[in-house]
UniProtKB/TrEMBL annotation:
Belongs to the aspartate/ornithine carbamoyltransferase superfamily. ATCase family. Catalyzes the condensation of carbamoyl phosphate and aspartate to form carbamoyl aspartate and inorganic phosphate, the committed step in the de novo pyrimidine nucleotide biosynthesis pathway. It comes from Leptospira ellisii. Residues 154-302 form the Aspartate/ornithine carbamoyltransferase Asp/Orn-binding domain. One of its GO terms (molecular function) is amino acid binding. Carbamoyl phosphate binds at R57, T58, R107, H135, Q138, L267, P268. This is Aspartate carbamoyltransferase. Pathway: Pyrimidine metabolism; UMP biosynthesis via de novo pathway; (S)-dihydroorotate from bicarbonate: step 2/3. Keywords: Pyrimidine biosynthesis, Transferase. It holds the Pfam family OTCace. It catalyses: carbamoyl phosphate + L-aspartate = N-carbamoyl-L-aspartate + phosphate + H(+). Its EC number is 2.1.3.2. Residues 6-147 form the Aspartate/ornithine carbamoyltransferase carbamoyl-P binding domain. Heterododecamer (2C3:3R2) of six catalytic PyrB chains organized as two trimers (C3), and six regulatory PyrI chains organized as three dimers (R2).
């Protein structure tokens, strides 16, 4: 096995060969789960679930993944109830966590914090979202979702809609999609465009992209990845109020598509994705959450060096 990643900190760390390997292993894991054979793979292992920023899905998804493998979980939620509120550094928190657990998953509001956390300890560290930076496990599950729903990635046209500036799930997924022959439509107000650094990262890769403010570009797409405007990241709340309702996806728009457009959303949603889309067969966002658990089961095993 050439895959050799103890930590999962960003999406730059993965080569195309790593992605092929991970997709294959996630498929194996999905099969084990279906056959009720995954429980016990991580018996005796303890996960520290450290969520210093709001989360429902990602935290429960990781914790469900660990429990479904027969491992156990200890957790802390928010700064308010952690010693960080007493002035403890992340370094000290991690040194303590290392004494308790075999692996740590961390979500933190500061970009780059998971790398600092990983640098402090010998146990594997998985980034579950660091500020407006990255969210690599969400991107891996998104990749797995697209391939599972569409059968392939090469040749697809994918739209990213919403907050491309602060949306870390978009930053991470774009970094993975660059390894495939994909055409991207980036649909956002200019104020929330994808940061230049992520665009630069696509150079020399088979991916191509177009930026537009026209929501009808969705009609050209095989996949539409819709995201929430990230209210908590705006330095000026008036700017959020001005931009929050500009792009909305609803059933009428999707039914007018020339293609069978699959709708993804990392969730939570606010107003950008109407609930009238939910009953369309191409609404894949709740299936996406299900794929997330098997993706994270795979990553927990591989980070702990436990093949299956
Ligand atoms: C995303 C996140 O936290 O970045 N949610 C998630 O992990 N599923 C998206 C968001 O908060 O908008």
């Amino acid at each position: 096995m050439s895959y050799n990643h103890k930590n999962v900190l960003d999406t730059e760390q993965f080569s195309k060969a790593d992605l092929d390997f991970l997709i294959g292993k996630t498929r194996d894991m999905e099969r084990l789960v279906e056959q009720n054979k995954a429980f016990g793979i991580l018996t005796g292992k303890l996960l520290a679930s450290l969520f210093f920023e709001a989360s429902t899905r990602t935290r429960l998804s990781f914790e469900a993944a660990m429990e479904r493998l027969g491992g156990r979980v200890i957790s802390t939620v928010g700064f308010q109830f952690s010693s960080i509120s007493k002035g403890e550094t992340l370094y000290d928190t991690m040194k303590m966590v290392e004494a308790y657990a075999d692996i740590a998953v961390i979500r933190h509001p500061v970009e780059g914090s998971s790398r600092i956390a990983a640098g402090a300890v010998k146990i594997p560290v998985i980034n579950a979202g660091d500020g407006a930076g990255q969210h690599p496990t969400q991107a891996l599950l998104d990749l797995y979702t697209i391939i599972s729903e569409k059968g392939t990635l090469d040749g697809l046209t994918v739209a990213f809609i919403g907050d491309l500036k602060y949306g870390r799930t978009i930053h991470s997924l774009i970094n993975l999609l660059r390894h495939y022959k994909v055409h991207l439509y980036l649909i956002s107000p200019p104020e929330l465009a994808l940061p230049e650094s992520y665009k630069k990262g696509l150079e020399g890769h088979p991916i191509s992209l177009e930026e537009t403010t026209d929501i009808k570009a969705v009609w050209e797409c095989d996949v539409a990845y819709v995201t929430r405007i990230q209210e908590e990241r705006f330095p000026d709340h008036r700017e959020y109020e001005r931009l929050k309702d500009l792009f909305k996806i609803n059933k009428e728009l999707i039914l007018a598509s020339k293609k069978e457009t699959t709708i993804l959303h990392p969730l939570p949603r606010v107003n950008e994705l109407s609930t009238d889309v939910d009953d369309l067969p191409n609404a894949a966002y709740f299936r996406q959450a299900r794929y997330g658990v098997v993706s994270r089961m795979t990553l927990l095993c591989l980070s702990l060096g436990q093949d299956f």
